[in-house]
Design brief:
The complex is a heterodimer of chains A (about 550) and B (about 250).
Chain A lengths: L2 E10 L8 H10 L12 E5 L11 H4 L3 E3 L5 E3 L4 H6 L10 H4 L3 E3 L2 H4 L12 E3 L21 H4 L23 E5 L8 H5 L5 E4 L5 E3 L9 H5 L5 E4 L4 E4 L4 H5 L5 H4 L6 E9 L3 H5 L7 H8 E2 L4 H9 L4 H8 L2 H8 L4 E2 L10 E4 L3 H9 L7 H10 L1 H11 L4 H22 L8 H4 L4 H13 L2 H4 L14 H5 L19 H4 L15 E3 L5 E3 L20
Parallel strand pairs in A: 1-15
Antiparallel strand pairs in A: 1-12, 2-7, 3-4, 5-6, 8-9, 10-11, 12-13, 14-15, 16-17
Helix pairs in contact in A: 17-19, 18-19, 19-21
Chain B lengths: L2 H29 L15 H26 L2 H6 L4 H32 L1 H6 L2 H27 L7 H9 L5 H6 L2 H16 L23 E2 L24
Helix pairs in contact in B: 1-9, 2-4, 4-6, 6-9
Classes of the chains: A alpha+beta (about 550), B mainly alpha (about 250).
């Protein structure tokens, strides 16, 4: 058993209002530069929708992620290593800028510099790539809020295998938001796809990063990621991706997207997992079992043996304690209400989602049911084939019963807490119908509804105790006298001065030209040399 | 050609180019690994690249293999294993022409998209143009040389090749080089110019062809380790990257 820690995120989709604040703050912090105009480390998609880049979820088109070969072994969907090296000059699976949306800006100068009296000067759109005039045809949020729904939404890859047509009439429409960042997978196919070995997973917290000095711009990570969350900076020619705001995480702060989330729907915390089980889980034969297989990789931090073993393997105690308090572990494993995004890509993603109950409940209400009575809600949840099947295609590789169980549990939390608020007699049997207890439901309610900042973000600081180990040499750049014990600090100064002893033996004539140092040998004293005569012992003279 | 000029073209220039090539690469590796990239433009334009890039690169591999065969392998070795000079030339001329056509064809497509595709053109820096034009000159001279020599059957392995190998013995035979037809001489001089600018252009990505990917474990982990802090005020960069104005 090889225990590793992984920083992970859970997003509660019920609370996402699609305001794009996470997108904007992330953009301002990380990709507000030339070369990354089209790049959104965090973006919010409307589902059903075509996605960013277009139809990125269709791996039959883009060949991202992993698949099993005929012998049942794990291999990259885009092909093996030799195939990559041979197609390195033209990557057949790379999206173009038009799939993301040609970035544009406006020719503001025409307005600012318009002469007085110009009737209504207006700006026109210019390409951020070329500076030329352009027509806007597509962008990262072109289909926001189902804009152009009847044309674009049916192209959603999650709808293609569904038995019923998705309804696009306004009264029957089914819609929610899906904020997406890099999944920081346990089995990242971008890292496996990088021929240069420039991408890596950090051992301490599992954050996946690109080494900008090692990247050679072969761009296989871009096509290898099934979530298309590695981007190519067209100015620097290097890959860039969501960093999970690692400088903030290391300081114990949540990511920018979490910090600024208006709906407070994001949770950050640690998982402990068994790295030896990752390959086996990713190789699970049936994609519908991948969710359960991934749950099996995680280790229970409440298990004393696990804690002892984790400590023995070098995981710091405060990290183990943080793993015990981790909200993401609670939501994903203890309560099983958070689900991975597209587990069928076999990357074991680590940004999980609580599926949205609200759009389902809205339809239930529209049908005239009373969501105070969970039985009615359950019956309707079952009858709502389209949303359930759609959510299952997103989160469980098509396993509808898992999604149904999660939604039922969320419905029961609502029913129980509403009953308590209204002073109704609690139905003691209700928690049992979803296989849980009142205490667990209370815990879930706390996490979902009223969790405070410290409860939503349980982030242990990075251990960088030896970061200062190499500082001493560096400090010379500032003031060599201010080192500990130095003259600037009231001491005698650096080692070499302190050890200056003009004469240490009786038979020696005191001289300003030599001194006997700590090593017992005579050395030339450059400080006391007046420039006359020779300077003996300037160079080592062999063994005395 | 006066002796002084011959010395310059056939001794000074080659050693100057070799020194620039080596020192330039060391410098670039130490100070500008961030700029060490292929700077692919597939994101901006894919249809031209789909044909141009593989044609050019595989053609270049063939051309490099041909140069190794013609310049580094002495004629007596091939004669020894029973390949007559005439058969050698038939093969070299036909394979060389094929490789040259691949290179020139690929280059034509790549140059066309670089000039005429606005998105690609916008990312092209002055040093890219220098590299592209020099590469074009060397390649065109190469195909002209091959074409002229096909009927001529000049045995360059007794002239240019002797001089070239002599460079690495510190004993270059200038008279051997001067015996070669003029087109051979111009081609090799142009090649030195290309090698001189090589370390300062995107051509450095040639040395990063990731062969070791074949053996590497798929998932790379890295642990935190203590490193020297940045020099104050540099943000960790030791030098400004080359050829990129922004």
């Amino acid at each position: 058993m090889r225990i590793m820690a992984q920083m992970a995120m859970v997003m509660n989709l019920d609370k996402c209002i699609g305001c794009h604040t996470c997108t904007v703050t992330c953009k301002q912090v990380w990709t507000n530069r030339p070369g990354t105009e089209y790049v959104y480390f965090n973006n919010v998609e409307t589902k059903p929708g075509i996605g960013y880049p277009k139809r990125y979820e269709d791996q039959e088109q883009w060949h991202g992620g992993w698949t099993l070969d005929r012998k049942g072994r794990l291999q990259l969907k885009a092909g093996g290593r030799l195939r990559k090296l041979l197609s390195i000059f033209y990557n057949p699976d790379l999206p173009t800028i038009d799939d993301y949306g040609d970035p544009w800006t406006y020719d503001y100068g025409t307005v600012i510099e318009a002469p007085l009296g110009t009737p209504n000067p207006s700006v026109h759109s210019i390409s951020a790539l070329t500076g030329r005039d352009m027509d806007m045809r597509w962008g990262s949020n072109w289909d926001d809020d189902l804009a152009g729904g009847p044309e674009h939404a049916p192209a959603d890859p999650n709808l293609t295998h569904m038995q019923e047509q998705v309804k696009m009439e306004f009264e029957q429409v089914f819609m929610f938001y899906l904020p997406r960042i890099c999944e920081h997978c346990l089995n990242p196919s971008c890292v496996a796809s990088c021929p240069s070995g420039a991408m890596y997973k950090r051992e301490e917290d599992g954050i996946v990063l690109v080494d900008q000095d090692r990247c050679r711009g072969w761009r296989f990570c871009v096509s290898g990621c099934p979530y298309k969350k590695v981007y190519f900076n067209h100015r620097t020619g290097k890959a860039e991706k969501c960093t999970l705001c690692f400088p903030r995480i290391e300081a114990g702060q949540p990511t920018i997207c979490s910090e600024t989330c208006v709906g407070r729907l994001r949770y950050l915390g640690l998982f402990l997992y068994d790295a030896d089980k990752v390959l086996g889980a990713a190789t699970t034969p049936d994609v519908k079992d991948l969710y359960e297989a991934q749950l099996d990789v995680f280790l229970d931090p409440e298990d004393p043996e696990i804690r002892v073993e984790a400590a023995r393997q070098g995981i710091p105690d405060d990290w183990i304690q943080a793993a015990r308090r981790s909200p993401v572990y609670s939501l994903a494993v203890r309560h099983r209400v958070a689900l991975p995004l597209h587990p069928e890509y076999r990357t074991l993603p680590m940004v999980w989602y609580i599926p949205p109950l609200s759009p389902v409940a809205d339809i239930v209400n529209a049908e005239g049911y009373d969501d105070l009575n969970p039985d009615n809600v359950f019956a309707t949840i079952d009858s709502l084939r389209i949303p359930l099947e759609y959510l299952a295609n997103l989160f469980t590789a098509g396993r509808v019963d898992t999604v149904r169980t999660v939604l039922r549990k969320l419905a029961v939390v609502r029913a129980v807490m509403r009953g308590a608020q209204l002073g109704l007699t609690p139905n003691e049997e209700l928690p049992k119908t979803v296989g849980t207890s009142r205490a667990e439901l209370d815990d879930l309610y706390h996490l979902l509804a009223i969790a405070k900042y410290e409860d939503r973000y349980v982030i242990p600081k990075a251990h960088a105790e030896d970061a200062g180990r190499l500082m001493s040499q560096h400090e010379q750049l500032f003031c060599s006298l201010d080192t500990e014990g130095g003259p600037g600090m009231g001491g005698l100064g650096p080692h070499s001065i302190r050890s200056f002893q003009p004469a240490a033996r009786a038979d020696e004539v005191p001289t300003t030209q030599t001194f006997r140092a700590d090593d017992g040998k005579l050395h030339a004293n450059l400080l006391g040399w007046n420039g006359d005569g020779g300077l003996p012992h300037l160079f080592p003279e062999g063994i005395e | 050609m006066t002796t002084a000029w011959a010395t310059f073209w056939w001794i000074v220039l080659p050693y100057l180019a070799m020194a620039t090539f080596v020192v330039g690469h060391v410098w670039r590796w130490r100070y500008d690994q961030f700029g060490w990239t292929s700077r692919s433009t597939q994101l901006q334009e894919r249809r031209g690249l789909k044909w141009g890039a593989p044609l050019f690169h595989y053609g270049t591999f063939a051309a490099i293999a041909g140069h190794v065969m013609g310049v580094l392998i002495p004629a007596r070795w091939t004669t020894k294993i029973g390949i007559s000079p005439h058969v050698y030339h038939l093969f070299a001329a036909s394979a060389g022409l094929l490789a040259a056509i691949l290179v020139i064809g690929g280059m034509a497509v790549l140059a066309a998209r670089r000039v005429f595709a606005p998105r690609v053109r916008a990312t092209t820096t002055p040093v890219d143009w220098v590299a592209l034009i020099l590469l074009g000159i060397v390649a065109v001279l190469g195909i002209v040389t091959t074409a002229i020599n096909a009927p001529l059957e000049h045995e360059y392995r007794e002239t240019i090749s002797l001089w070239f190998r002599g460079l690495f013995n510190a004993n270059p035979d200038v008279s051997a080089a001067l015996r070669a037809p003029l087109i051979f001489q111009i081609h090799s001089v142009a090649a030195w110019a290309l090698l001189m600018v090589w370390p300062f252009t995107r051509l450095v990505h040639a040395w990063s062809y990731p062969v070791w990917y074949l053996w590497r474990p798929y998932i790379v982990y890295r642990a935190k380790r203590a490193t020297s802090p940045n020099e104050p005020g540099t943000g960790g960069r030791k030098w400004r990257k080359i050829g990129v104005p922004y």
